[in-house]
Model the fold of this input.
Amino acid sequence: MPEYKLVYFAFRGLGEVPRQLFSLAGVKFENVRIEDADWDAGKRPETPFGQMPVLFVDGKPIPQSFAINRYIANQYGFAGKTPFEAALVDAFADQFKVDFNTEFKKYWYVKQGDEPGDVEEMKAKHGIPARDSFFPLVVKQLKKSGSGFIVGDAVTWVDVLVANATDYITVLEKDLLNDYPEVRGYSRSQGEDPLSSRPQGVVEDQRIIVSN
Done:
């Protein structure tokens, strides 16, 4: 088995889905967490694009969070059972990244206090429209699949991605997804909760970073 080392900040963010995928697969990995102060002070690991996360596979780096997610998913059975399912998983993941996160982060960064701005104004302008653009698609697909998972009849990396997103959203704003109860509970209905295998000690900081 390859040796894995995941390098990311000491909060959930873009490192959380790979962490959960490794845990779901029962695969050991070195979880290297970089403190904000060290990064800001220039004490940074060497990365291909000057960004994190980076997954090192036998010492060879894979940058970009979605590339990492897809790699782990393909290695350990979370990419879909057929080429069609894999394409649909990728489609929903890309929709999440391009359509939802691109807009939602404009609100969420202000909500978290990472950027200045009026919280309610940004929520109305970006947060609510992003929510109401993406989550109805998930609800529709859950009803279509009928399995309790977004694609197919088993957990895929897009389930982990969306479950993680709904979890961190409701931690900071518990009522924001009240109109979409199917989304928050969908994976748990099958008794296979992607969040239940979250590695201990990596979630004390709920911040999200959705830039790559």
Remarks:
- The helical segments are 16-25, 36-40, 65-76, 83-112, 119-145, 157-172, 181-185.
- Residues 83-112 form the longest helix (30 residues).
